[in-house]
Amino acid sequence: MTDQAALRYDELEVGRVFGPFSYAICADWAQRYAEVVGAEPAVYPQALQTGHDSPPLAPPLLLDILAPLKALLLPFPEGVVHAREELELHAPVRVGDLVAIWLTVTDRYLKNDKRFVVFEQRAENERGHLLAMARKTLVWPR
Question: Does residue 81 belong to any structural domain of this protein?
Answer without folding.
Answer: yes
